[in-house]
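Appendix B. Raw example, untouched.
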Amino acid sequence: MPLLKKQIRFLVALAAVLIVTEAINVFTGNGLNQFGLIPRELPSLPFIFTAPFLHGSPTHLMTNLLPLMLFIWLSMQWGNRTFWLTTLTIFLMGGLGVWLFGRHAVHIGASGMVYGYFGFLLLAGFRSKRVPYLIISVLVALLYGGMLFGILPTKAFVSFEYHLFGFIGGVIAAWAWVK
């Protein structure tokens, strides 16, 4: 199966998982959000792997879905190994950062992953020094550079902590996994 077809299948499957999860969450009155991440509460620690799949509303999911799919697809261009190591790094760094330093609240949403892939994409092209990857990094910086303001605490109900630590995780992943 050609690579692009595999990537599109993965993205469609991931989008379906996110949409079905949100539908279940809506029908259970946000009952799944109990699996969100609560800083410094030990029973919540494993939820660093579930919190990115949960959203407060369908609108919340939709605002994350398109940039998540785009940034995942662009990150896949560095190859499977780099993509999966980057994904794991973003999950761990983003989740642990929120768990250690976040405000006491239930932190949910894929935006930490979005910001993680964003951080990866900004640095990875420069780290690789290869023209196609440099082009991706420059285009992401030009088209999405305004996202950097999202790592600042601007709205009380938005987890800037997930944005910040996800972004840091993505930058660390680019530094660690891109040669």
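End of appendix B.
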